[in-house]
Task: inverse folding
């Protein structure tokens, strides 16, 4: 593990990504203390004012402080990213384990299902499902989480199919180890590396997806803010007041870039294991 | 007689780690030189340096590679490229992976003919068949249409040889040409190389870890150890009066006909990894005769007009104590 | 080769059925939604009951699915609840705009990604590689809608060179094509670079160099041709990229294509139309993947013959 950490730290881009992430997470955690204004305090007469001393990033069409909204928005955008990532990891582990463990028709059904989910463009599936159920923090989070499990399931299934044939599994069985124990002790640690890399890259794509949904109006709803929805607010006015769109856009890009860099770095640092896991 | 190839004090590093030190040898037209050594001894790196195929992070740091008296290392990269595949050709150890999987045998041979012999597509296609015939492939017309994965390992190596011949080379470098093949096929390929050499008069460098192959196929040999040439001589000198303890060790580890041997000899220890850290003889750690003086820089000692060894003890008549 | 293609097509049939089931089931995520949609929000219980019977919503779910599937297979995808026009007609009228936009964006993406990707791989660990890779990474992380807005601000608002919406002249194509093409090119470029770097380590590339071929020939004829095998697999995700991009770019640039039809339909809860668009695009993805499989066989003789 220490050698892995040192390789990760040596990966300068990954370190940069990690630092950006820590800063963004800190901003989200300490939003109530950092925000100069109430993110929902409306001042219609001051709508679309550009950056000033009092409002460092300017005001949105309703006169709300964009900096404060972005700090609170970081909570929403990042937690959707993390929670949806973790949810899809969970679903993927369950589906992949079932498919790999039972094999036969269970495997067949699950893998066909995975194929269906990989073929229907996720964006269309999510935007339609969110529109039908009704857009909200929870629905966005759950629907994205439920629609991106396929990659994890495939990795896990492959790992289980490979490990089933190894002699030590027979041995563990003979000692009376339960299947769940074998899964936890032998299967998961073996595919930890690819799973970690996948989660990191997945969080990046979830953040991008949520921001696109919110931008189109099918994501986080007023008065709650996410980076995408703040940007969406300014869309109609961005020709005259570009600041409303600029700053949230930069925040999304920074977060996604950071996760991508970290994911690449993790992949490189974990590489030997990644090769084994395949 | 003018030498065809003369390598002088060639030094190569991989990302600042030295892998070749002071490599010097030469080759006359039509001659066969065997280069023997374990993996990692620098045989292949030497060959790739001559061909100008050394790839990142490998870098030639010093020395000369004279081709008909002209230093290839001073040549513009493009002039060196034009010699490749025509004047000098190379075949490799892994015939399985050395042919491009997405092109037919015909396309891969014709490419050389069109590039170096200025043929057009039709001429190249016909000539390709005759080259296949020359390397002993039956039904050459049919084989031309095959993709590499449809051929056996021995066939692929023959195709590689046909490709090399297609440039009419003066020098063929064969880097472990039979290591990856079945024993019966090995002999066929070596016979083929010998016959082609007799037909065309080309010179050959045969790179191998197998001393036996050198004995049967080469005129002269050089023994490499840890990036250095440790001994050089005619084949009979190397086999009958080996001077360097490493060469002697290699010979003792060969199985021999008619002798009862319970255990094959093996040289104790392993090849050193960081050559940059060694000032003196790289073999000293494994050598039964080593002493403190071996830790200083060693030079080649001449034993005859054609034999030399990089060992301090040569003068002290190691030769008499040869254990055989 | 023929057998290979036929087998691929046969394998795609259950997949298409699975997709149709998923798309059909989507409408039932909100209980009673299709009925409410047809009857309107404030319909009386009697009206709702009548509609349920008329449309077969009182039947079991599976029966409804097969009734729907039978209609779809006959080309009847229903009518838009809002405009009362046949869904097939609406799609047909919008499709050409989307196709044209996607065509140019794909061409732009290929024209950027391949030369840059090959160059970055050929000159790895030099500033050329660093700049190209950095551009790719930024491009991949930049939300498409934000890129669109930046392009509009710079080229339409500040410089007044190009129009921001409409479809009349070639100038109208520039910004939407660029917005759509760039984001896709970024990912593709990375793919080209990594695949090519992998292939450049292969023995047959060394053989090609040993033949004395020019480096350009080695790169393009010997290395890139082999690198195309993983790259073509990556092209399977091309449509998925394009779909997201199209929806967003068309919405921003008021482009009268399928993407904007979809967002409008979603906004108006015109779900039969939504259903039809998703189904159609998904089937297009299946077709694209089939095409990729065939391309595979064309590129790689090992696939063709096995």
Result:
């Amino acid at each position: 593990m220490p050698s892995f950490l040192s390789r990760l730290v040596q990966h300068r881009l990954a370190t940069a990504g990690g630092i950006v992430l820590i800063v963004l997470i800190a901003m989200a955690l300490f939003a109530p203390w950092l925000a100069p204004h109430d993110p929902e305090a409306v001042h219609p007469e001051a709508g679309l004012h550009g950056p000033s001393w009092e409002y460092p990033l300017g005001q949105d069409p309703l006169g709300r402080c964009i900096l404060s909204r972005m700090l609170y928005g970081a909570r929403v955008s990042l937690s959707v990213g993390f929670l949806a990532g973790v949810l899809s990891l969970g679903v993927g582990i369950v589906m992949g384990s079932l498919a790999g463990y039972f094999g036969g028709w269970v495997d067949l059904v699950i893998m066909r299902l995975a194929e269906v989910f990989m073929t229907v463009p996720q964006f269309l599936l999510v935007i339609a499902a969110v529109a039908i159920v009704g857009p909200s923090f929870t629905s966005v989070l759950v629907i994205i989480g439920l629609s991106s499990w396929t990659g994890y399931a495939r990795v896990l299934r492959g790992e289980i199919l490979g490990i089933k044939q190894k002699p030590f599994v027979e041995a563990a069985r003979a000692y009376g180890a339960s299947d769940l124990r074998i899964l936890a002790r032998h299967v998961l640690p073996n595919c930890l590396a690819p799973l970690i890399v996948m989660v990191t890259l997945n969080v990046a794509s979830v953040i991008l997806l949520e921001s696109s949904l919110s931008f189109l109006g099918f994501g986080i709803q007023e008065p709650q803010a996410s980076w995408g929805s703040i940007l969406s607010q300014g869309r109609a006015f961005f020709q005259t007041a570009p600041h409303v769109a600029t700053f949230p856009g930069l925040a999304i890009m920074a977060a996604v870039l950071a996760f991508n860099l970290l994911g690449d770095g993790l992949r490189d640092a974990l590489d030997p294991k990644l090769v084994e896991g395949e | 007689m003018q030498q065809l190839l003369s390598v002088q004090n060639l030094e190569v590093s991989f990302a600042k780690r030295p892998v070749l030190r002071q490599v010097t040898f030469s080759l006359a037209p039509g001659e066969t030189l065997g280069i023997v050594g374990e993996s990692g001894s620098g045989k292949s790196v030497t060959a790739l340096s001559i061909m100008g195929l050394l790839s990142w992070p490998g870098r030639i740091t010093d020395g000369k590679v004279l081709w008909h008296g002209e230093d290839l290392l001073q040549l513009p990269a493009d002039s060196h490229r034009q010699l490749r595949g025509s004047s000098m050709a190379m075949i490799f150890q892994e015939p399985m992976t050395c042919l491009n999987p997405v092109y037919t045998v015909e396309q891969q041979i014709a490419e050389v003919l069109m590039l170096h012999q200025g043929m057009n597509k039709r001429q190249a296609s016909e000539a390709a068949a005759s080259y296949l015939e020359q390397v002993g492939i039956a039904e050459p017309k049919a084989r031309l249409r095959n993709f590499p994965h449809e051929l056996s390992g021995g066939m692929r190596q023959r195709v590689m040889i046909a490709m090399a011949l297609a440039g009419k080379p003066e020098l063929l470098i064969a880097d472990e040409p039979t290591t990856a093949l079945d024993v019966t096929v090995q002999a066929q390929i070596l016979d083929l190389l010998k016959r082609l050499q007799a037909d065309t008069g080309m010179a050959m460098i045969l790179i191998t870890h197998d001393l036996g192959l050198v004995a049967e196929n080469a005129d002269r040999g050089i023994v490499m150890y840890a990036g250095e040439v440790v001994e050089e001589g005619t084949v009979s000198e190397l086999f009958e009066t080996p001077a360097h303890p490493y060469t002697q060790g290699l010979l003792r580890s060969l199985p021999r006909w008619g002798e009862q041997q319970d255990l094959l000899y093996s040289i104790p220890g392993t090849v050193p990894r960081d050559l940059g850290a060694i000032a003196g003889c790289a073999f000293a750690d494994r050598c039964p005769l080593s002493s403190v003086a071996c830790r200083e820089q060693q030079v080649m000692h001449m034993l005859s007009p054609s034999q030399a060894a990089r060992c301090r003890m040569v003068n002290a008549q190691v030769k008499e104590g040869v254990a055989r | 080769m023929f057998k290979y293609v036929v087998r691929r097509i046969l394998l795609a049939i259950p997949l298409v059925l699975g997709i149709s089931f998923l798309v059909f089931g989507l409408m039932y995520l909100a209980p009673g939604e299709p009925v409410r949609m047809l009857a309107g929000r404030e319909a009386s219980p009697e009206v709702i009951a009548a509609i349920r019977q008329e449309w077969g919503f009182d039947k079991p779910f599976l029966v409804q699915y097969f009734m729907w599937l039978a209609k779809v297979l006959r080309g009847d995808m229903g009518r838009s609840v809002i405009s009362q026009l046949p869904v097939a007609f609406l799609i047909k009228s919008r499709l050409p705009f989307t196709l044209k936009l996607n065509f140019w964006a794909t061409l732009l993406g290929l024209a950027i990604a391949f030369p840059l990707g090959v160059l970055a791989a050929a000159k790895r660990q030099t500033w050329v590689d660093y700049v190209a890779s950095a551009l790719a990474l930024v491009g991949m992380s930049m939300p498409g809608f934000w890129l669109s807005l930046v392009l509009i601000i710079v080229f339409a608002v500040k410089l007044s060179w190009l129009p921001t919406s409409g479809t009349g002249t070639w100038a109208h194509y520039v910004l939407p094509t660029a917005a759509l093409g760039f984001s896709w090119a970024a990912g593709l470029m990375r793919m080209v670079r990594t695949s090519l770097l992998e292939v450049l380590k292969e023995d047959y590339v060394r053989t090609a160099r040993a033949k004395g071929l020019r480096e350009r020939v080695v790169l393009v004829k010997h290395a890139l041709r082999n690198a195309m095998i993983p790259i073509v697999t990556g092209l399977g995700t091309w449509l998925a990229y394009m779909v997201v991009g199209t929806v967003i770019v068309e919405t921003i640039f008021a482009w009268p294509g399928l993407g904007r039809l979809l967002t409008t339909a979603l906004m108006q809860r015109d779900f039969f139309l939504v259903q039809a668009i998703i189904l159609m695009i998904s089937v297009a993805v299946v077709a694209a993947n089939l095409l990729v499989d065939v391309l595979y066989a064309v590129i790689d003789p090992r696939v063709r013959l096995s």
In short: The two ends of chain A are 20 Å apart (CA to CA). Chain A has 13 helices and no strands. The mean pLDDT of chain A is 84.
